[in-house]
Structure formats: C-alpha cells, structure tokens
Design brief:
This protein has a single domain, classed as NAD(P)-binding Rossmann-like Domain (Rossmann fold, 3-Layer(aba) Sandwich). Helix content is about 40%, strand content about 15%. It contains ten helices and 13 strands. The strands form four sheets. It has a six-stranded parallel beta sheet, with helices on both faces. β1, α1 and β2 form a beta-alpha-beta unit. The mean pLDDT is about 95. The structure holds NADP nicotinamide-adenine-dinucleotide phosphate. NADP nicotinamide-adenine-dinucleotide phosphate binds next to α1, α4 and β4.
C-alpha cells in the first residue's frame, strides 16, 4: 500500500519513520512544510500525484494549555483540517487512521473507560479533538480513530523527557498524585497501528482505545522514571487543587483496551515494562 503520514515531525510521526524501515508498504512522510492539512487542495494534489491509498494522520494541535487561549488554531487543525482529510478520503476512496485522545471522555467513576463510555471533554483541546472525531464518525470512508493517552517517545517534548531533564538538574519537583491514567510508549502505538494496517480490518469499528496496560498517576509515574533512570531527586506529591493551571484534566482516565486487542489480535505490554525499554534506550 502507498501510505501518507502527515505531521511526521511530531512525536508519533517520527516514531512511524523509525518503525517502518522494513515494512512492505511504501511510506510518504510529510510535515507541515510539505503538506499543510489545513489546505484541502494541497492534500488532494498530494494524494493524487503519489497515488495514496491510506492516510495516517499524525498532524494535530496538541498543546493542551495553549488550546484554551488559541482556540482558533485548535479548530483549524483539529477540526477543519480533519474535515479536509475526510473529504479527500471520500473523493479518492482512501482509508484513514486518525489519532485522538482520552481527554474526550472524562469519566466520573473508577471503572476502565471503553469506547462507548460517556463523552464529555473538559478542556478545549479535548473538545476540538472530539469535534474532529465526529467528522470521521459520519464519514463514508473506511477510517478509524485511535484514542491514546499520556504519549511519550524519544522525540519532541513529552512528560518523561521533561522529568528526566528536571531530575538530572537535581531540582525539587512537585507532581500531581490524584490524576490517574495510562502512559503510552509511541513505539508500541506505532507497532499496533502497523498490525492494524496488515489486518486490513478498518471497517469493523470506528473507535479504539490504545495505551499501555495498567495505570498510574503522574507522581508514581515520575518516581518510576527516576528509579529506572537511577536519578535521585526530591519528588513531592501534590493534589491537583494545589497545582495552579488554567486547564481541567480528567481525574480517572484509565482506558479499556479489550476492543483493539480482540479485533486485531494484538498484545499490549504493561506501562512500566514499556517505560523500562524506553529508559534503557534513552541517552
Ligand atoms: N502527546 C500526547 O500525550 C497525546 C495524548 C493523547 C493523544 N494524542 C494524539 O496523538 C496524535 C499525535 O500526537 P503527538 O504527540 O505526536 O503530537 P505532536 O508531537 O504535537 O505532533 C503533531 C505534528 O503535527 C504538525 N502539524 C500541526 N499543524 C499542522 C498542519 N496544519 N499540517 C501538517 N502538520 C501539522 C505539528 O507541526 P508543528 O510542531 O510544526 O506545529 C507536529 O509536527 C495527535 O492526534 C494527538 O492529539 C497525543
């Protein structure tokens, strides 16, 4: 298959570049300079010239804090550009794999969240990602949405890299201990996505959860990062009420991955096992 990856300078996009070196498929990696997904004509021209059969959309506006004040840009990339992609997919009969976030949920109970659980995003990033999902849900093309969470990788900025930097400076670090969620090593998400492509079952369900198995909170996550990286520094647990932020995040965002495991026959390792592999390879 001829596969276009958008937003390929981001965390997930770079991970795709890294993981597909021995794939049978032909990949076309584009960043915003090569292909701006807010321009429908650019997408249409690109997929026509390169005879694209599947789009993996890694492009997004992902700054959760800034999305509260820069709603216009969040709308442009997370909603309007998704509409562009969907329209092109429909016109050219192209399939699409799109990524979204657990922040579309916001569960009030302590049960793992499956794909049919209550949708109720509490911040504007989550709202914009949900609006993008809705366009895909209504689409006539074979497209799926993978909702992931707490993504980290060797690339770009993410929580794990930030904590390592702070820890190595010996800073005293205050970390929230009352928000629970599931870390995702981008390598595992990309491998799972490649399995989905091979299975050719993009028409079964629209939405899938994916993260590593198990769950943690930001404080315990940080402690585990430092234990594995052998960093000793002062980590202080704080509750989210005493942490100044303009953005509301869900308290218990633990997702149920049964659907993706069952349909695509994928095994998912625990978050701490994946983190250990990441830390071993992180310089
Ligand atoms: N990171 C997380 O913790 C997390 C959690 C849950 C879900 N997700 C979802 O997972 C997906 C991948 O996230 P990520 O962490 O890899 O994001 P990322 O590192 O921010 O990468 C997104 C990429 O999209 C590019 N982009 C922005 N506007 C574009 C445009 N108009 N046309 C083409 N490219 C554009 C960005 O370029 P610039 O940097 O130059 O703007 C960036 O390279 C996203 O859908 C995100 O919502 C992420």
């Amino acid at each position: 298959m001829r596969i276009l990856v958008t937003g390929s300078n981001g965390q997930l996009g770079q991970q795709f570049k890294n993981n597909v070196y021995n794939s049978d498929h032909e990949f076309f990696f584009t960043d915003e300079n090569d292909l701006d997904i807010t321009e429908k004509k650019e997408i249409l021209d690109y997929v026509t010239i390169y005879k694209i059969e599947l789009i993996i959309n890694c492009a997004a506006y992902t700054n959760v804090n800034d999305a509260e004040t820069n709603k216009r840009q969040a709308i442009k990339v997370n909603i309007d550009a998704v509409r562009n992609l969907v329209e092109v997919c429909e016109e050219k009969k192209i399939k699409m794999i799109h990524f979204s976030t657990d922040y579309v949920y916001n569960s009030n109970n302590l049960n793992p969240i499956n794909e049919d659980s209550n949708i109720n995003p509490t911040n504007y990033y989550g709202i914009s990602k949900r609006e993008g999902e809705k366009i895909i849900e209504k689409s006539a093309s074979d497209s799926i949405i993978i909702r992931t969470s707490w993504l980290y990788s060797m690339y770009g900025n993410n929580f794990v890299k930030t904590m390592i930097k702070k820890g190595e400076k010996g800073e005293k670090i205050y970390v929230i201990n009352d928000q629970f969620g599931c870390p995702t090593y981008s390598k595992d998400l990309v491998d799972c996505t490649l399995n989905i492509i091979i299975s050719n079952k993009l028409n079964k369900y629209r939405v899938y959860n994916f993260s590593n198995e198990g769950y943690t909170n930001w404080y315990d996550f940080t402690k585990k990062i430092f234990e594995l990286k052998k960093i000793s520094c002062d980590v202080v647990p704080v509750d989210s009420n005493s942490y100044e932020t303009t953005v509301t995040r869900p308290k218990f965002s633990v997702t149920d991955k049964s659907r993706i495991k069952d349909i695509f026959n994928v095994k998912i390792r625990r978050w701490d096992e994946a983190l250990e592999e990441f830390i071993v390879n992180y310089q």
